[in-house]
Amino acid sequence: MAGLAVFGVQFGPVGKASAQDGAPPSGASEIFATTYDYVANFYPLWFTYYQWLYSSDNRFAGPEKVTPLYQIVVAINVDTIYASSVMDLANQPVLVTLPPTKTRYSILSLDPFGTILDIDIEPEAGTYVFVGPGYDGPVPIGLKTVEMPLDTSFLIIRADKYSETGQDLTRQAERFRKRLTTQTLSDFMAGETPEPALVLPEAAFAIPFKTVADFMVAYMPVEFLKLMQNAVHATDYDYSAHEQALSDKFDSLFGTGSPNLAERLEFEAGTRAAHKSIVNRYLKTRGATNWTHFTNIGDWGPRVIDRAAITEFCQYCNGIGTAAYYHAFYDNRGRALDGSKKKGYVLRIPKKKLPDVSRFWSLTAYTPDSVELVDNPADKYVVASYTPGLQYNANGSLTLYLAQTKPSGVPKANWLPVSEGEFNVMLRLYGPQGDVSNYLPPAIRR
C-alpha cells in the first residue's frame, strides 16, 4: 500500500461549469464557489498526474493478469490484454512498433483530462514515429509519422483475448503485448535495441486512487486540495483562459493550504459539494431501466461534471465508436444491487435486445465503488458473448444470473458471481453497431 503513504492517508480545455453541470448554489461564498469550480474542473488531474508518476515514460507496461488486486483505475476489464505508456515527446520523437497479430486490438490516446485525442494511426503492424507539436527535425525515412497535439499524453492498447466467434486468442494477445516496443529517436539513431513492454505482477497496479480520493474528500479535504493544486501546477498542459484564471484565483485564496478555521470550513464544504455533484452526475444519469450510459466519453465539450464523473467511475474508457459502456447500480425498482439477497438477480435479454456488436459484449461485476473486481471462490469475473458454454433460451433470448453462489440448475457459463453486500455491474459493447445512444439493456430484477 505504498500509494497510501505517498498521500499521507492512513485508512481506518473546457468552459466553466454551467448550472446544469452542478454549479455551486447562488449566494455561496467566494471560497466555496471557487473551490467547487476548481474541483469540478480539475478533478481528473488529481488522478492522472499521480497515476502517471507510477507509469513508465515511453515504455509500455501492463499487468501479468487482472485480479481483484488491480485497483489503480476503476472498473478494469478482463476481456483484453492491456499495455499503456505515458508518451513524453517534449525532447524528441518516440518510435512505437506494433507487431503483427491475429487478434484485434484498439489504440486509445488521451490528454491529462482523459479527453480522447484524434491521432492518425490504425491498429496495423509497423513502426510509427510519434512527434510532438513543436518538433521540426528529421524523422527516419520510410516510417509513418504520427503527429501528436501534445508533448505529454497517455497511450493505451487493448488486445482482445477472444475473437468475435469465441476463439480463444489469449496467447496471441499476450505475445502481441510482449512484442510491443518503444524507442526514442536518439536511441534508434545510435542503433540501440528497442524496449519491449513490461509485464508486471498485478501488485504493481494495486494503488486504489479512487478510494484514496473519496477518503480524502470525506475526511481530509484540505489535504486533498493541496495534492490537486500540486497536480494542476505540475501537469504539462496548455490550459484554457478560463482554466488558468480559475487556477490563479484558487491559488490566491488557498495560498499554501493553511487557511484559518472559518476559511477552512468553506474550502472543505466546497470540495465535498463538488465531489457530491460528481458522484451524483454518474449515479443519477440513468435511463428507464436504471442503467447509466454516457455517449460523450472522451468528448466532453463544456460538461466538466460529466468529465469528472467518468473519471470517478470509468476512467480511461474508450470513445463510443470503439466501445459502449452501461453501468448498473440499481435494480428495476431503483433498489441498490445487493448480493446478500440469497436468490440473487436475473438479467433477461430478449432476442431483439441482445447487444449488436462487431466484436463482443461482456458483463463484469465490481465492488460498491467500482474500484475492483468481485473476489469469488470460482475465480470467475465475466460473462460474455465469447464465454464457452453460454446457453441461450429456445426463443433466442438470454438469461444471466447474478448471485453469490451459482443457483441450482443454472449453467455455470450464464452465472456471474457477485459480492455479499452491494455491488454494481458493467456491460461493455466492443464494436457497437446501430444507434447505441438509444440502446439500453433491460432492467436487472431480483
UniProtKB/TrEMBL annotation:
Q: Which Gene3D superfamilies match?
A: Domain of unknown function DUF1214, C-terminal domain (2.60.120.600), Domain of unknown function DUF1254 (2.60.40.1610)
Pfam families xref list: DUF1214, DUF1254
Q: Cross-referenced InterPro entries, in alphabetical order?
A: DUF1214 (IPR010621), DUF1214_C_sf (IPR037049), DUF1254 (IPR010679), DUF1254_sf (IPR037050)
Ranges for domain DUF1214 come to 323-433
Span of domain DUF1254: 58-181
Write down the PANTHER family for this protein, in alphabetical order.
Answer: BLL3101 PROTEIN (PTHR36509:SF2)
Give the protein name, as stated in the record: DUF1214 domain-containing protein
| Species of origin | Microbaculum marinum
